[in-house]
Amino acid sequence: MKQIFSFFLLFCSFVQPAFALSPNDPFLDSLWYLDHIGVPEAWETTTGSSEVIVAVLDSGVDFDHPDLADNSWVNKKEIPEDGIDNDGNGYIDDVYGWDFVHEDNMPIPDVGLGFEEDAVSHGTFIAGTIGAVGNNTEGIVGINWSVKIMSLRVLDNYGVGDSEAVRKAIEYATTNGADVINLSFAGYDYSERFQEAVEKAYEAGVVTVAAVGNDSDGGLNINHYPSYPACFTNGAGSDDWVIGVAATQEDDTKAIFSNYGSYCTDISAPGTDFYSTFFQDDEWLEFSEEYYHGYWSGTSMAVPVVSGAVALLIAEYPTLTPSQIKIILQLSVDPVVQIGIVGRREMGAGRINVARAFSIAGQFGLSREELESVKPSTNIVVVPEAGSPPMVRVFSKNGLLLTEFLAYDEAFSGGVRVAMGDIDADGEDEIVTVPGKGGSPLVRLFEQDGTLIREFYAFREDLQTGFFVAVGDVNGDYREDIVVCADAGGRGRVKVFTQEGTGIEDLWPFGSTEISVRVTTADVDGDGLEEIVCSQGGGTSPLVRVLELDGTLVSEFYAYATTYDQGVFVAAGDIDGDGSDEIVTGTDEGGGPQVQIFNGTGSWIGTFFAYDDQFRGGVRVTVGNLSEEKNASASIITAAGPGGGPHLQIYNNHAELIGTFFTDQETDRQGINVSTWSL
Asked: Is 0.70 surpassed by the pTM of this model?
């Protein structure tokens, strides 16, 4: 077993601070560092969000603590004590996280087999600094008044752990929605598997914050004695997957015990004289009296200051990436006096200044308020069905061709499927494509001018069944996710990815089947979280299913008569302006051009024929807000299937035709697919 954790304690006096925004927590004056780094000024903007999750990988967190209970993460997908892995994540009854030391579902400190008092309370102490409930007339206040602390126990009662437990905990945190991972420990043994887990977390948009470590002899230069995980990097300097944190004291000089080194130290933070939450258990004399304790020092204390600041930034600017957050923190620092250290930036960019970080964060991302008010562009994207080159054409709502580009090699003629969404939250839609039959499962993301942003394979590269794609925020992180499913022959699998191409979830909405599956996303209940809506191709009934991300069935209904078996296309948008999306269906080739409209529970709302009722090429549908007003009712846009011309029609919420144009030569009869963005 490798020891990867150590901390160094001092017991000192403190100076009482004055706060700009003062919560009513009675021990507020013991938290000198809050005022010193500008946290109260940041509280004028936000005091945190329960939608932000910070995973504390440590000796366990006392999640029943009166100052932590309301901010403790609960896995709502798991049913307590039923002995079943309800959410399918590989951990049974993991309601409050997981203990990777004992491999059980109680990630709290365990004092039954011997202990060191400080080690037992270490995780609880860290959690309080990040997110003790604020303004509750109880104890202390965390940097975040509101947040969710995910307890993952990786250190035993003596503060000792091994890299394999930490690796598994990082993977758990990443898979289960953590935004920030706090690692208040360090060691000097390198682990490739540990590093791979950290890298994957970074690629999934998770910010990992770690201590550079302590040494009783004035601190080590980790340029010469690398400390992990702070020193995990790809070696090329372009990707530094961890924010490495050194410790300072009240006069902004290096704390005597803190390690340092420009290669791995990204930023410094206060790390002395900390007062925080303490593990409490009446059955043990050592833990029977105090819910709070101090005064501790160490780089272990500096890490939750940075993790807490990161969580606070994400609460206000939820689309910030790990690299953007690191840049913001480093651009906003105060200088550190490097007494006794030779070299530049040995303590990182400087000492964290949270108030200044908030003053510049708006240059890197949109605030929650701005995200709610932004109105993406309302262009319409058209791509061909099989038989034509894979040309993507972008039109204005009035039919003006704005740009065109090839999604794949010009020789490919299997057709293209397309979705649109504001992938990077910049107020402009991006275009996501997958190939039709005969193409490998290559997902491509483009700007509307055709600039390729990135690409990734959704399935194994030799699978050439053809694919369908949708875009929507299905996991509630304010970032558009990408949903991909296979055409006939793909076994009915639906896969969900982040915008970076990292897998989030796999679903089988109709079980294992060789029939094609089609997909869209829809907020059917108006809660701001989009569900996944699936239908099937020809050869089965016209069943539509609405699912949550974890596969839970929300509703199901038949879009057409149960005897109809030609296949169904699905789209969704808020057609009636009530805040919830309606589901719109169209027929596949062989069916008439009948468009149906349903609410989220499957209740029928209306129907109309988009083209001549004798046409049997089917009709593709999409829904988009083509008005200049953000909350206006969405329009239904239809495109003719094979045998019909490239004829696009726009209908309002009363099924009245309000616009029409051809997207190519009227004699072209291969059929087209269409997408736009629906708010």
From this structure: no
